[in-house]
Amino acid sequence: MNIIKKEITPRKLTIELFDIFAEQYPADYRQVILAAMHTIFKGRGTDNDEGYLSTPLFRHYLRLSGIKPEREMDTIERVKKFLREMDMGEFGIGFIGLDAKLTPEALAMIADFDAASREFGVLPLSTPHRWTSPTTFCVDLVTGATNSEIEHMQYSDMPRVYDAVNYQQSIGYVMDTELCKISDWITWIPEDPAKATKQKQQLTFLRKNIDIFQKEMYFFVTMDSRGRMYYRSPINPSNGGDFSKALFKFTEAKPLGKDGLRALAINYANHTGNDKLSLVDRETWAHEHGLKLAYDIMGKSVKEIQDITGEDKIFCLYTAAMEWRRVIELVNSGKAHHEIESQFIVRQDGTCNGIQHGAALMRDRDTGLNVNICESAEFDTPEDIYSIYRDRLLEALDDHWSAVVDRKFAKPPVMIKGYGAGKDSIMGDLMAVLKKSPQFQKELPEIMDTVMDELNVVCAAMEKLTNALRTALSERAEAAEDFYWKTQDGFPVIQKNKVLEDQCYYIVNLEEARKKGNEIKQERLIVRNRDVEEVINFDVSSSNGIKGIAPNFVHSIDANHLRNVVNGCEEQGITILHTHDEFDTHACDYFRLNDITRGQFVKVHEFDWLGSLESCSDVVVEDVRVNTLDLNECLEATYMFS
Fold first, then answer.
1. Phi and psi at residue 12, to the nearest 5°
2. In this structure, are strands 505-507 and 526-527 parallel, antiparallel, or unpaired?
3. Distance CA 140, CA 64 (A)
4. CB proximity list for 573: less than 8 A, separation 6 or greater
5. How far is residue 625's CA from residue 629's CA, in Å, rounded to a whole number?
6. Considering only 37-41, 175-179, 205-209, 325-329, which range has the smallest mean pLDDT?
């Protein structure tokens, strides 16, 4: 798609505005240019009055204008103050008289620029602009990328990175109207404040753009600094949460074929809390109980569906149930199941994906068994690492801890350990889990050594990897030097490093956290456990970069794996939707996609990741691999993604 009438770029438009304003406002012309840019893009794709001032686009204009503020908010405040002094109105209201200050040529240029920018809107109605470089038109491929990161990408040979992003952008979606049959779907708000805020924003966005949601739409994709891909819209079928995911199905319909009915059954069972059963038992559950449950919840309210199913996340569950009902009714009417067409998105998740990659990297079969990357069959029951960890804790702790140590207690430590979290972060998350049990909160510090000892057994590979990385990079960290490595497909990852002299502590009182919000951001403090009445202090490493090396290293590996899977799907004509460690497709392609994810998992771990870090950062990483895992075993790991 090319709707640009003439070659208009942010730089050319910026130069034009320089010429217009520099003479009249020589001291602050850069701020005026930023204000004009905000006028052009005012509020597009956002639900607040700041418009694009808080997005990568604003940072892009900062760079073009030569402004390098220590903090982005400082520049925003300066722009606001300057506009008030010029009597040009407030943000989100409009700029009184601004258009009158522009030449006809500038207005024409802005009109073309504005039209072209719609390719990068949050809900494009045709395939978005294809990526061929790290910066295209008005957006960076990596959101918030620094000049040095962009330069690294410009000189990196990474065509497969662009291929993956472009294929994801080329897939069309339409609204799944089954969701609308939930009686209060458009008004229901969760009780959890964080989830409620997010869903209010999504519903506001949906109402504002409801006409667009009646059409086929595509999603603009960008990446973070580790290479993870994100769909850029408040509501999207990938990373927008349960409500957002349930809202979409693929535009293209495909016949279920030989395996599609099985895939729908497994997907349905997964959403009803039966994802710990074998694949065979999940299918059995869907055939024996799925149709009745679908009729029981059809047209009910959110609360009624939650009461019937016992599940908190019910939107994806509901659409899965309605698709199962539709297909089974067609089968019962005499239609062959393999001929039934479906647009439904069938999903499959990894098991603690960070730990999966850590186990493969360390060739650690014991850890690999806990996260299902070892050989298994469809009639086997998958391992549940959270339950494994819970059981170890219950054996190691005094009996009275059995009142609170359940799977919910065990889940946060395992999840964040998969990305290199340390004792303090894990204690912070457990304090939050115990917020309704103040006596156990007080006792928690006494058992943290046991919590960590058992966690390091269950997740042994991650402990080895984290220690090896931090040891290798300690000298560079103390010198505040950045770390750098390249992924298998050529994406450059730069780990920023900064020496922190001040102590970092957790503020655990909600009201105090709100009062100190700005200070927290400036002082790099961490807000945790916001319902507790005291402040807990922790000592931390003097290097901020070294703390993030393990999670970012693992994230770059799983991002590379995802891109490999996406490219493999394009080559085989499979539609794919991603959410980091979740891989989704049409029901007919469910098992083929599963084969691709396992094959690409092995391929990505045949790459010498530690060697890349060593050569790029000029360090030596101790080889702590235990070599008890044969990667080829992963090819037969039924429950790696299921």
1. -65, -40
2. parallel
3. 12
4. none
5. 10
6. 37-41
